[in-house]
From TrEMBL:
Coiled coil: none annotated. Residues 52-393 form the Amidohydrolase-related domain. This is SsnA protein. One of its GO terms (molecular function) is hydrolase activity, acting on carbon-nitrogen (but not peptide) bonds. The keyword Hydrolase applies. It comes from the Bacteria. Keywords: Hydrolase. Gene3D superfamilies: Metal-dependent hydrolases (3.20.20.140), Urease, subunit C, domain 1 (2.30.40.10). It comes from Corallococcus carmarthensis. InterPro entries: Amidohydro-rel (IPR006680), Metal-dep_hydrolase_composite (IPR011059), Metal_Hydrolase (IPR032466), MTA/SAH_deaminase (IPR050287). Pfam families: Amidohydro_1 (PF01979). SUPFAM superfamilies: Composite domain of metallo-dependent hydrolases (SSF51338), Metallo-dependent hydrolases (SSF51556).
C-alpha cells in the first residue's frame, strides 16, 4: 500500500524546477514520479489541486532548549561576554532533564509546523548532562521530526563536566538509529582547553561523525582563545585535526580572510544564522564568502527556515553580497543526506519522503526562473498545510497528528517557569 500525490506542482531547489507531476510514496521513500501516475488498488490518493510539493526543510544549526527562554525578561547585556555570563549560561545551568524533553517537543512542534523535517541541535545543560540527548530525542520523536543531536562539550564546568559532555555525545552517537543521528558537539573554542580538544578528537575517531560547534560568533572567540590558549580558534582546531568535510561550524562572522580560507579548504560546512546575528548584535557574517558548503540555521531564534532564508537573502543584498538562497536551502539537504547516508531533499525516485504540501496561490508565474523570488518574497510557514517525514504524515490540514499543541504549550510554559525560577534563585 502506498500514497499517490496527484495534481501538485513538485518543486526542486537545485537545479530549480517546478513541474506538475505526481509522486508515489511507498514505505519511507518516493518510488515513482511522472505525469498522471496510475494508483494501485490499495493506494491512498491525495488530490492536491495545484498545491506545491516542496522538499522538507533542513535546519542545520538550532538550539531546541531556547524555546524555554522566549520572553525571558532581563536588562539588555552591555556586551556579548555579558550576554553569555548573565543570560545564556545561567539559562543552560538551570535546565533539568524534564525541561530538556519538554523543550524538544515544543521546539520540534514549532519546527515541523514551519516546514522543517530535519534539524541539527547543539545542546547544553551542564547540570543535567547524562541522558540529555536521549531525552531530547524522545521529545522530537513525539512530534515526528528527524534529528541530529550533539552535546556542546566545554571546560566551563571543569574537567568533570567536560568528561560528562564527551561521554554523553559519544554515547548518543553510538545509539542513535532511525530518524536520529548523533554528532560530537563543542562549545566556543575559548571555553576549550587542550585536553578538551584532544578529547573531541578521540570522540570523533570513536564515532566516525563530525564536529558541530560555534565559531567566531563574536570577536570574543578570537581574543579569549588567544589570551587563554596562545592561538586563535582556527589555528587550534586545525592543529587538533578537528575540521573535515563532516564538521559543521556555525556563525563564522568574525574570521580573518586567511582563517576563513583555511576553514573552507578543509571542506567544513559553514552554517549561516542571520536572524540570530542581528538579535545578538554581533555583526553580519559574510555569507557570500562561505563557499559551496554553506547552509542555514536558526540558532536560538524561532525555527522558521522560510523566515531565515528571507533574512539571509535580504541581509546579503543590503551588504552588497547577494547569496543564492536556493543553494543555501538545497545544501541543507546535502548535509542531511551526508549524515543519514540517504537521499533527502530530491523529489525523485529513491529519495526519502520528507516533503511539504504548501497551499500557496501564486500571484505571478511560478517557474524555475522565478522560484527564488517566490521563496524570498512570497512563500512562508503560513503556507505549510501538510508535512510528511519518512513517508508518514506528521501534519495534516495544518494540525499535528501525534501531539496535542495545547498540551505541549501548557507543559512548555510550566517548564519555562521552573527554569526561570531556578535562574532567579541561583
Amino acid at each position: 500500500m502506498g500514497t499517490v500525490l496527484k495534481g501538485g506542482f513538485v518543486v526542486e531547489l537545485e537545479p530549480a524546477s517546478v513541474e506538475r507531476v505526481d509522486l508515489r510514496i511507498e514505505g519511507e521513500r518516493i518510488v515513482a514520479r511522472g505525469e498522471d501516475l496510475a494508483p494501485g488498488p490499495d493506494d491512498e490518493v491525495v488530490a492536491l489541486s495545484g498545491k506545491l510539493v516542496f522538499p522538507g526543510l533542513v535546519n542545520a544549526h538550532h538550539r531546541l532548549a531556547s524555546v524555554l527562554s522566549r520572553g525571558l525578561v532581563r536588562p539588555p547585556p552591555p556586551s556579548y561576554q555579558a550576554l553569555l555570563e548573565q543570560v545564556r549560561w545561567p539559562f543552560e545551568n538551570a535546565l533539568d532533564l524534564d525541561a530538556v524533553q519538554v523543550a524538544a517537543t515544543a521546539g520540534g512542534l514549532e519546527s515541523i509546523q514551519c516546514g522543517t523535517t530535519t534539524l541539527f541541535d547543539l545542546h547544553a545543560s551542564p547540570r543535567a548532562v547524562t541522558g540529555s540527548l536521549l531525552r531530547a530525542a524522545r521529545g522530537l520523536h513525539e512530534v515526528g521530526v528527524r534529528g541530529v543531536l550533539s552535546y556542546a562539550v566545554t571546560d566551563r564546568m571543569g574537567a568533570v563536566g567536560r568528561e560528562e559532555g564527551l561521554e554523553e555525545t559519544v554515547s548518543f552517537a553510538r545509539k542513535a538509529r532511525g530518524r536520529f543521528r548523533g554528532q560530537v558537539g563543542a562549545g566556543p573554542c575559548f571555553t576549550l582547553g587542550d585536553d578538551a580538544l584532544q578529547g573531541l578528537g578521540e570522540a570523533l575517531n570513536t564515532t566516525g561523525t563530525g564536529l558541530h560547534f560555534p565559531l567566531a560568533e563574536d570577536p570574543l572567540d578570537e581574543r579569549l582563545s588567544t589570551e587563554r590558549h596562545g592561538n586563535g580558534p582556527v589555528t587550534r582546531l586545525l592543529t587538533s585535526n578537528l575540521l573535515s568535510p563532516r564538521a559543521m561550524a556555525a556563525h563564522a562572522g568574525h574570521l580573518a580572510w586567511a582563517d576563513l580560507a583555511q576553514v573552507l579548504a578543509t571542506g567544513t560546512w559553514l552554517l549561516h544564522t542571520p536572524r540570530s546575528n542581528q538579535g545578538l548584535e554581533v555583526g553580519y557574517a559574510p555569507a557570500l564568502k562561505f563557499g559551496a558548503r554553506a547552509s542555514l540555521g536558526t540558532d536560538g531564534t524561532s525555527p522558521d527556515l522560510f523566515a531565515e532564508a528571507q533574512a539571509a537573502y535580504l541581509r546579503s543584498r543590503e551588504a552588497g553580497q547577494p547569496i543564492d538562497v536556493l543553494r543555501y536551502l538545497a545544501n541543507g539537504h546535502r548535509l542531511a543526506s551526508q549524515v543519514f547516508e540517504a537521499a533527502i531533499g530530491p523529489m525523485r525516485e529513491g529519495a526519502l519522503a520528507d516533503l511539504l504540501v504548501l497551499d500557496y496561490l501564486s500571484p505571478t508565474p511560478l517557474t524555475a526562473e522565478t522560484l527564488a523570488w517566490h521563496v524570498v518574497h512570497g512563500l512562508g510557514s503560513r503556507h505549510v498545510e501538510a508535512v510528511m517525514v519518512d513517508g508518514v504524515w506528521r501534519v495534516w490540514a495544518r494540525r499535528p497528528l501525534s501531539v496535542n499543541p495545547t498540551v505541549v504549550a501548557e507543559q512548555s510554559r510550566e517548564a519555562a517557569a521552573a527554569v526561570w525560577a531556578r535562574m532567579a534563585s541561583s
